[in-house]
Amino acid sequence: MYTLLKTDGKAKRGRLETVHGTIETPVFMNVGTAAAIKGAVSTEDLKVIGCQVQLTNTYHMHVRTGDRIVKQLGGLHRFMNWDRPILTDSGGFQVFSLAELRKIKEEGVYFASHLDGSKIFMGPEESMQIQSNLGSTIAMAFDECPPHPATKEYMQASVDRTTRWLDRCRVELDRLNGLEGTVNPRQMLFGINQGGTYEDIRIQHAKTLRDMDLDGYALGGLAVGESHEEMYRILDATVPLLPQDKPTYLMGVGTPANILEAVDRGVDFFDCVYPSRNGRHGHVYTNHGKMNMLNKQYELDEQPIEPGCGCPTCTHYSRAYIRHLLKAREMLGMRLCVLHNLYFYNRMMEEIRNAIDAGEFQAYKKEKLASMGRSN
Amino acid sequence: MYTLLKTDGKAKRGRLETVHGTIETPVFMNVGTAAAIKGAVSTEDLKVIGCQVQLTNTYHMHVRTGDRIVKQLGGLHRFMNWDRPILTDSGGFQVFSLAELRKIKEEGVYFASHLDGSKIFMGPEESMQIQSNLGSTIAMAFDECPPHPATKEYMQASVDRTTRWLDRCRVELDRLNGLEGTVNPRQMLFGINQGGTYEDIRIQHAKTLRDMDLDGYALGGLAVGESHEEMYRILDATVPLLPQDKPTYLMGVGTPANILEAVDRGVDFFDCVYPSRNGRHGHVYTNHGKMNMLNKQYELDEQPIEPGCGCPTCTHYSRAYIRHLLKAREMLGMRLCVLHNLYFYNRMMEEIRNAIDAGEFQAYKKEKLASMGRSN
């Protein structure tokens, strides 16, 4: 299903064919936490801003409105009115970051909902069942996201359990995909490499994963507090061990610079809340660095956020108007900034793909990093 | 500039030609308080949902971001990227409802900004200057909005002062329209009839106003706590005294039923925050009554809010999805409900115009009121 079209150094230009259409990689997945992009962005908007694939959070959908209800409504695609690919995470990250009273056992995790304190159990089977109910294009394996920092002993035990959980995920998803009435019987499974910043654990785990013939391979537990240099070092050590003819996904990353560096190390898939979260705070991305749209200097500025940008915001509205909306706490201000930022990310990925196609990725990366400056 | 195209009983079908295009009446003005419709609705959206004319609040623009800044940016139309008509209110209503430490004198009103307590003076000249800076299509005269209830003595004195203020508004707007560099030198002025629920004061004031040859005539100080029947009684007494060959505007009104009753009494223009405010709370209008989209009954409901509705929300999204968004406090839920409600209002006005054109307004009104039920 994944075709490696071209390489440029370690950078990969690929194509993943799915039941919901084709994903050209490298790609940035636009994060729709609760089956909606924060900032009043609709699925109609997503098409306008060039989104190829959308990510929805399994944990959030499970605790509200409930994956069984989504299944009764025909799955996430029909629920959201989005006919292109959707990746669901495993719920693990939220269980380990949001939920309360957490207890990890071999069978899975006991925790309390962050919404109402109700007791929930989630293990590999439950995560697969929820994701199967949601009917996403790509399901993620249920893993432990170990705390950062963690002792080497803790990390090794955690990664070993994550491997055992992955086995259970495969068995359960195979079973679910074979059931009658399954929303998406061709749901794919990506496994997740863990190991924190311990290179040897990462490497050993990557070797274990690559022998499992999964639909794709993710790196989890990065961008959780370690330095960018540590993250790049782990990518250097781990990505070359993962199958080149399968997609590689760096979870929760990151800044434009992080993405450029990770593409340069062979990563295909990205997701991050930065563009939507920053947009809601009036922080916008441009090819000349980030701008804080609340700054007084934009009060009389009739230019679009970025002259020449083709996004719906820059096509129609000025910096002065956007600043006014943000100052007046009008929701439209947040929406316009989020639309611009997601367009910026999606457009950058398109530029990256074009650069790899042309064998000019190094020159593109150098120029992009230089023009954006350190703030990105 | 206003042409009375047809009457059907007292109902008027008119057309107001302005420098910013034509307004077909009866019309509902979509309320963009601070140069934006609340609910993340952009001016691009307004075109899709059939908005002819937008209303912006003079007071809000004066206290934040400031009308002088808007003037430097070429006026409200350019600021918002909206090329169709805009009506600005006088600021009076907000001065009398929002502002603090209010002191009314013959020259105008001294008050403190509700934002930062800063001291502001606004009289007829200041209101005209602000509205001239904003460059709206139609400016409203600066009036006192008397409290409800008010003694007859207070009301008479207030209305007399409002008449003197109107004289000063006309003189000042004439002067401003003649200045070089005025944003819209063809800015129109509507006067405002006041008098609370005192029929004799209303009638006397209407007679005074009609002799002043204004661009349009508004009824203010209604829908401020009196019963619907009292409001209709005042309309019955007052509207027939206003020039039929000029537009009549019932300020701040109202429910769909209020609008139907007022059209039936000769009113052309309406504005109200109900559709956007209710939409933000998940309350939506349909031809079969209002619905609370948070209700459990919509959890598994795959229908659009109103089957057959042509709005962007009903075209793409289900009740179940909208309920989920509202429960998850996703801004998109508010936006979708606001878009539907404004479309509903704009579409109802179109139906009203068609019914008057066909000489079938009474039948249309009766059927619409019956189908919507009492909740509207």
Automatic annotation (TrEMBL), chains A, B:
Residue numbers spanned by region RNA binding: 252-258
InterPro entries given in the database record: ArchSynthase1/Queuine_TRR (IPR050076), TGT (IPR004803), TGT-like_sf (IPR036511), tRNA_ribo_trans-like (IPR002616)
GO biological process: tRNA queuosine(34) biosynthetic process
UniProt catalytic activity: 7-aminomethyl-7-carbaguanine + guanosine(34) in tRNA = 7-aminomethyl-7-carbaguanosine(34) in tRNA + guanine
Bound cofactor: record note: Binds 1 zinc ion per subunit.
Active site (record annotation): 89 (proton acceptor), 271 (nucleophile)
Database matches in Pfam families: TGT (PF01702)
Protein keywords: Glycosyltransferase, Metal-binding, Queuosine biosynthesis, Transferase, tRNA processing, Zinc
Molecular function via GO: metal ion binding; tRNA-guanosine(34) queuine transglycosylase activity
Pathway linked to the protein: tRNA modification; tRNA-queuosine biosynthesis
Domain of life of the source: Bacteria
Cofactor(s), by name: Zn(2+)
EC number(s) recorded for this UniProt protein: 2.4.2.29
Annotated substrate binding sites: 89-93, 143, 194, 221
Reported function: Catalyzes the base-exchange of a guanine (G) residue with the queuine precursor 7-aminomethyl-7-deazaguanine (PreQ1) at position 34 (anticodon wobble position) in tRNAs with GU(N) anticodons (tRNA-Asp, -Asn, -His and -Tyr). Catalysis occurs through a double-displacement mechanism. The nucleophile active site attacks the C1' of nucleotide 34 to detach the guanine base from the RNA, forming a covalent enzyme-RNA intermediate. The proton acceptor active site deprotonates the incoming PreQ1, allowing a nucleophilic attack on the C1' of the ribose to form the product.
Family stated for the protein in its record: Belongs to the queuine tRNA-ribosyltransferase family.
Protein name: Queuine tRNA-ribosyltransferase
Species this protein is from: Anaerotalea alkaliphila
